[in-house]
Amino acid sequence: MAHEDWQDTFGQITLTAEDAEAAEEKQKKNFAFLCVLRVLCGEKTLYVIEPALKATLALPTQEVYYRLYRCDNAPPRRLLLLHGGGVGGAITWGGILPHLTRWNEILVPDLRGTGKTRYPDHHEHGFSVEEVVADLAALLDHLGWAQFDLGGYSYGGLIAMLLKATRPAAVGKTYLLEPALLVKMNDEESILSHERILHAAKRLHNPENRDEGLELFLDAVAPNRSRGSRNEEVMRQRLSHRPAGLACAIECVSHAAKHFDRAALIASQARVSSFIGSRSHPAMYQLCEEIAAGRNDWACHLIQGADHALPFQKPEIIAELMNTNLSRSKT
């Protein structure tokens, strides 16, 4: 990891090359970022790296891996964060976590098909959104989380919406970062998009066609990305960790797209802040604005300079908006 990447992660301080190497070494040893242990350092704020509680919940059909971040200095409030397809929770939210100041407990699980969450036989198998929601329900019950705020990105954004619909009284504030299915397309565009993404999944299932599958997937979710950039190279490396798991997640979302009533799912949400990259499909922000225009508990934020990879590209901006939006919320 380059020195400048650690500057982006920590945000408000500059690390020396030696500091960056030391921090990277800790990350290699499975340390993670604890959200908000802060030490004043002159006029700047230093974020301290600490290990998170890491554990696995063994369910009959899934071993659910999760990280629990605690900060005694933050207000007594809980936040559940759900990642997108192909990249686990710690990496997806790693740049955002150090800047969150409104929660003293943050739960970051790996969803099916991603990270360290696996079937008991450790092989890749297909799954449904209902099974993913059931995994989370079991985890929340196991930890005794009856009340919490909720954030979800892409595939995890769809799961977050379904979890909210399933447990409406449990969820307070919801943050949606380009959630799957929340895009307004005409019928022809929708069919073409569905065909492209399923073709990507088919290629990802075959190790020999992994690179082609990743290209097709990125073309579908981030067509306006900076091609050939270092950021794209890093994203490809992350998505290559479990390509067949990514394929299963794609198929899971595609199946849901055919069977769920999107209007009813949107209507079941409450107190939502939605984040859309300015370089993403314009239909996504258009739909977000239309929803917000018809209700007073839905806010849209256009993140300038970002595409679908917005949690990796603009973590500090998103974290600050999450903090601010919660402060402005009624409860």
Task: Characterize the structure shown.
With 331 residues, the chain is α/β, with parallel strands linked by helices. It has a single domain (32-328), classed as Rossmann fold. The chain has 13 helices and ten strands. It has helices spanning 3-10, 17-28, 89-93, 129-143, 155-166, 187-204, 210-221, 230-239, 243-259, 262-267, 282-293, 310-313, 315-328; strands at residues 33-41, 44-49, 53-58, 63-70, 78-82, 105-109, 148-153, 171-177, 272-277, 298-303. The strands form two sheets. An eight-stranded mixed beta sheet has the order 3-4-6-5-7-8-9-10, sandwiched between helices. The protein has a two-stranded antiparallel ribbon with strand order 1-2. A hairpin with a 4-residue loop joins strand 3 (53-58) and strand 4 (63-70). Helix 4 packs across helix 5 (155-166), helix 6 packs antiparallel against helix 7 (210-221) and helix 6 (187-204) packs antiparallel against helix 9. The longest helix is centred in the middle third of the chain and has 18 residues, at 187-204. The radius of gyration is 19 Å and the shape is globular. The N and C termini lie far apart (39 Å). The relative contact order is 0.12.
CATH level-3 fold name: Rossmann fold
Termini, distance in Å?
39 Å
Portion of residues in beta strands equals 15-25%
CATH superfamily: Alpha/Beta hydrolase fold, catalytic domain
Q: From the coordinates shown, what is the CATH architecture?
A: 3-Layer(aba) Sandwich
Q: What is the C-level CATH assignment? A: Alpha Beta
Low-confidence stretches: 1-49
What is the ordering of alpha helices and beta strands?
HHEEEEEHEHEHEHHHHHEHEHH
Helicity range of the residues? 40-55%
Rg: 19 Å
SS content category: alpha/beta
Largest sheet: 8 strands, mixed
User: Looking across the biggest beta sheet, what order are the strands in?
Assistant: 3-4-6-5-7-8-9-10
User: Total number of helical segments?
Assistant: 13
Number of E strands: 10
Number of domains: 1
Chain-averaged pLDDT = 83
Overall 3D form: globular
